[in-house]
C-alpha cells in the first residue's frame, strides 16, 4: 500500500512510458522498503493492487449508499458496521481490508464514487490510460486502472505517520482474531479425534466381549458328553464340535 501511495509519476511523455515508469517505481519502492522477506514481481504487485482496489471500491460504494440514508444519532463505528453488513449482503463475502481502507479512504479515488464533478475536474491519471495487451496479463478487468497518488513526499509521510498506529492496531486485532479462530479449529479437531478414538475403543471392547462370549459357548459345547445322547441331538452336537475343532485348527 505504501508503495502505491508514496510513488509519484514522472511527466507524461507517452501513455506506455508513463505506465512502465510508474510500475517500475512502485516495484523499486516495494523492494527497497520490504521487511516481510517476500519476493514480488511487477505483475504480482499489479494483481495485488488490482484486488485491493476492486474490493475497496465496492466497499466505498456501499458506504455511499449508507450515507444516503442520513441516519441520525449514528456513530462512525455504527456506520462502518452497517457498511460491512451491506457489503456482505452484496458480495456474499466479508470485507477484510480494514487496514487498506484506513490508508485509502482519504484518497480522492475512494472518496466519493458518485461525484461526477470530481471525475471531470481531476487531471489525467493512470486511471485514464489504457493498458495494452501483454503489459500485465489478462483478467484484471477494471482493477487494472491505477490512479496517480494525490500527495507525495512530506505530505504522504505525514499521512502515513498518522495512519500507522491505527493500521497497527487493526492488524493486531486481526491477528488476535485469527489466533482465536485457529485455536477454535484445533480444539474442534482434537474434540473430533477424541470422539473417534472413544468410538474405536468402544468397538474394540464390544468385539472382545463378543469373542469371549463365543469362546465360552464353544467350550460349553465341547464339554458335552455326546456318548449319552442319541439320534438327531447326538448328530447335531457332533457336527458343532467338529466345526469348532476345524476353526481352532485353522487359526493355529
Key features of this structure:
252 residues; mainly alpha; 67% helix; elongated
Walk me through this protein's architecture.
This protein has 252 residues and is an all-alpha fold. The protein has a domain at 2-150. It is 67% helix and 0% strand. It has 8 helices and no strands. α3 (42-67) crosses α4 (76-91) and α5 packs antiparallel against α7 (153-222). The radius of gyration is 36 Å and the shape is elongated.
Would you report the number of β strands? 0
Overall mean pLDDT? 71
- Share of helix among residues? 55-70%
Shape verdict? elongated
Can you summarize the main beta sheet? none
Report strand %: under 5%
Radius of gyration: 36 Å
Q: What is the helix/strand order? A: HHHHHHHH
Distance between the termini: 74 Å
> In terms of structural class, how would the helical and strand content be classed?
mainly alpha
Organism: Quercus rubra (Northern red oak)
Protein name: No apical meristem-associated C-terminal domain-containing protein
Domain No apical meristem-associated C-terminal: 93-244
InterPro entries: NAM-associated_C (IPR029466)
